Amino acid sequence: MASVPQFPSARTPRTARRPTPDPRRAAIYFRVSTGPQAEHGYGLEAQEQACRALAAREGLTVAEVLRDVESVTAWDLPGLQRLLDLAEAGAIGAAVVYDPDRLSRSLAKYVWLDSRLSAAGVTVHYVTVGTAATEEQRLFHDIKAVFAQWDHRRIVHRLAQGKRTKVAGGR
Which of 2, 4, 106, 124 is the most buried (most CB within 10 A)? Predict the structure, then answer.
């Protein structure tokens, strides 16, 4: 079973003085949901190329490239955990991600991740929707996260419906 991160209480002391991250030092993060997608190269190469191109356009130095092959609804993805570790250590000041739904298709998890990265001084640069430099842009990113959650629920429903249809047809 996936471990769920502990949300800090109001009494939890803040991390002792974090190093100031270099805003030009970045980690790239990308993800696909299933092993077959990774085995056949669906999405991983394209996401990495787009992220590298954005990093180059933005003048970012790529320190690490992180990837996961698993459902984004899981809380314990190794690449995503490494991204958080780098952020909290002050090792990066930027993260380059293809789309907000690559971080999470759960609104609660997206908000939690966004707040952790922001608290660590990391700016997230998305290939598809850019960087949230204004409150309006942050709102757009949050709305995109709501739609990612809705889309995930729709996919789960369609898959379940397809399985029921197969069983009913004797396959």
Answer: 124
pLDDT tens-digit map of 5-44: 554 444 334 455 677 899 999 999 998 875 455 454 457 8
- Among residues 106, 110, 141, the alpha carbon closest in space to that of 125 is found at 141
Whether pTM > 0.70 for this model: the answer is yes
53, two tokens = 């191109």
Q: Pseudo-torsion of CA 92, 98, 100, 101, nearest 10°?
A: -130
